[in-house]
Structure formats: C-alpha cells, structure tokens
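From: lab user (bench 3)
To: helpdesk
Subject: output format question, protein + beta-D-fucopyranose

Hello, I'm new to running complex predictions and I'm not sure whether the block I got back is the full result or only part of it. Here's what I submitted:
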Amino acid sequence: MYPQFPPGFRFGMSTSAYQIEGAADADGKKPSIWDTFTARPGTVRHGEHARVAIDHYHRYAEDVRHIAEAGVHDYRFSFSWPRVQSGTGFYDRLVDTILAAGVRPVPTIYHWDLPQELEDAGGWMNRDTAQRLADYTAMLVERLGDRVRDWITLNEMSVHTLYGYALTDHAPGRGLGLGALPAAHHQLLAHGLAVQVLRAGGARSVGVANQHFPVLPAGDDPDDVAAAGLFADLTNWTFADPILRGEYPNELVVAGIGVDGAQLARDLEVIRAPLDFYGVNYYEPTMIEAPRAGKDYAGVLEVDIPDGLPFSPVPVKAERTDFGWAIVPSGLTGILTTLRDRYPHLPPVVITENGASFHDAGPGPDGRVHDPRRIAFLDAHLRAVADAIEAGVRVDGYYVWSAIDNFEWAAGYDERFGLVHVDRETLARTRKDSWYWYRDLIAAQTRS
Ligand code: FCB
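Helpdesk reply: Thanks, we reran it on our side. This is the complete output you should expect:
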C-alpha cells in the first residue's frame, strides 16, 4: 500500500487544448502556430494533424464525466488562445460542466498554441508578445474569473523554447540554436505580467508549470560534469531561477537573452513575483557528456541536437516506455529535493504532469483496456513523490498526464498517455485499467 499522502493532497489529471479539442475552425477560430506547423509536410509522424484531434470540443461533456467519476479533485486543461480571440463560449460551457461535476478547474493560460498572427509578428522572439499574453489573460479573467479561481500561467517554457525555437521539432520550428534565448526571456516576462493581471483579478492561487529533470553527467570526468552543468542551466535553471530567485543562472544566458542593465533588473522584478504553487512536470532524467571527438551522435536521441554545442545528450540506462523515455521514478524524488535545496523560498509544489506512453491496444473481448505497465509507472512515481514528502519537500498535489489519449505533438497519435483510451477510427472512449486503479487509489487516500 501507499504511504498516506498528507490531508488535503490534491489528485488530478491534465490535458491541453491543442492536443484534444479539434474543431480547428469552429467559432471562426484562426490558426495557431501548431495548425501551420502540422500542415507542413514532414513535421508530424505519419503526417498526422489535430484538426479533429479527439474531438473534445464536441465531446467535452463525456470527457468531463470520465475525469470527474475517477474522483479527482482538480482538472488541469488549457485555453486555446486563438479560440479565445473569437470568444469564450466553449470555455464557459466547459468550466460550468467541470464545476457542476464537483471538480476544481485549474486551467493553463498558454500551452504552446500561439496565434499564428502573433508568430508572424515575431512570436516569442518579439518582446511585445509578453504584453499580448497579459492582455489575453485579462480577457480570460474578465470572462471566467467569477468561476475559475486557480490558474497556471505558461506550460513548459523550456520545451517550447528548445523544441520550437532552438530546434525545429515543434512549432514554430525556427531552428535558432542558442539564438532562441530571447524567446525564453519573453515567455518568462509574459508569466510575470500574467501573475500581475491574475492578482489584480482576485485569483485564489497562481502557479506555473515547468518541466524539470535531473541532469546526470555521463561520468566523473570534469568535462562531462561541466557539460551537464551547462545543460542543466539552459533547460532547468534558466526557467526556474528568474521566477524563484530573480536571476539567471549564468552569464552565457544573460548575454543570450539580449536584455541588460536596468531593463533586465526591472524585468526580473516582474518575473520573480511570489507564487502560490510551483508546478513541476516530470518525465525522465537526461544524461550528458562532453562531446567526444569523432563520435557520431546522430540518432542517439529522439531529437537530433545540432553539432558544435558543448554538450551531448546520451541515453540513460533504464527500462523504457513505448515512447522510448527512460523510466526512472527516483529522478522525481531527486528533482524535488534539488528544487527544495536550491530555493529557500520554494512555494508548495504540485506535480502538474507525470505519466507514460504505452501503445495500448483497444478494448479486447472482455471490453477492457489492460495497461499494467502504466499502472506500474504511476504507482512507482507516486511512491517517489511520497519519498520527497518524507524528505521534507512540501508537495500539495499530483496530476496524471493525461486524462485521455491525445495528439502527442510531433509524435502524433501513436503515443498514448491517457487513462482513457480513444479509438482512432470511431473516437470512442474506453476507461483503461489504470483509470480504475487511479480511482480506487484516490478513494482510499481520501477516505482514510
Ligand atoms: C509535456 C507536454 C505535454 C505532453 C507531455 C507528454 O512535455 O507539456 O503537452 O505532450 O509532455
């Protein structure tokens, strides 16, 4: 059995708008960068797109039932910025349905689907996009703030910067290398400005969702240790240090973001505004070595890192999910204690995403979807959270990624993270064994 989680611990599930909604043109919605990106040949596995996705836009009432009947306390979803530009009707209905089901909505304001028209004006490389996000936040607060009280600003600014702006794997696919660092700063500034708007609008709680993971040096060689340190700065600390201690981790990053002096100091004051919770998305650790002369790194990882950088990701030795991600539950305990040690003022943590893709077959003759490996994954990671709590880290909640199978960005629909299975032909939903397991766990934890 599990260690008992603290009283008031909040179990939840997560999704994001672009990955589930579909209805690409409903309500006069204009394209996001992901609509543009997926329309370009060669960007997504099997040429898949999300114009229909899992049709959550039309099937949201059923989906909310699957979420609520598991007994979760919180449901984290996201708003589609381009959809909101033409009205909040869909989200009015969605929020009302979530509340009527007895679940707390904890929406993310921005989960990667930037309106294409803003990308055309420079996207996150343009400082003005931060102010535009603040204006969009004000619109959400005005229309939904009477019912939505708990907010997450941005999702995984690091992954958006790295895959979308430094590399070409995600929208908008810019491939700027280290030249992408201004996109990091502008998202952080957007986060800080959004916090101001949410505070002024009377929010009950405000947080952010950052992806974090331990960065392990491949060996004791000082070059490997230095390479791992730099990689950790660029992926973990560039996005946490400004928020949690008002500074960037090193001079290379400061030079790269291209803002200095008094302006930088003013921006950091905005970015470091206190939060009510700090969201951590955890999937797997990364192992880094200093590049070995003559070694060919092509194909070593799922994304190709350009040559000439001072670090090379190498595979961690561990069992893997069907997506090829290393299964290392202790990495979650590790990153939580690292965050606690690094930030004396760390707010309570919520695990805003954790989960695994296994290529589950649809319902068999017994009508069930058996996903024992997902259950084992979630079980081990919840124990890892309990270990961190035991070690003195304050963790207030845990959300599974994801409530339901969905569009896994450049990997398309093969990667299934859901507790609920979706048939790709009929879009029929079937609760997986992991859904029942999670329901029973929540019931047991909440009863005692
Ligand atoms: C995270 C994203 C989320 C989902 C999971 C698997 O990086 O925030 O949208 O794709 O990975």
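A quick orientation on your result: The mean pLDDT is 97. Let us know if anything else is unclear.
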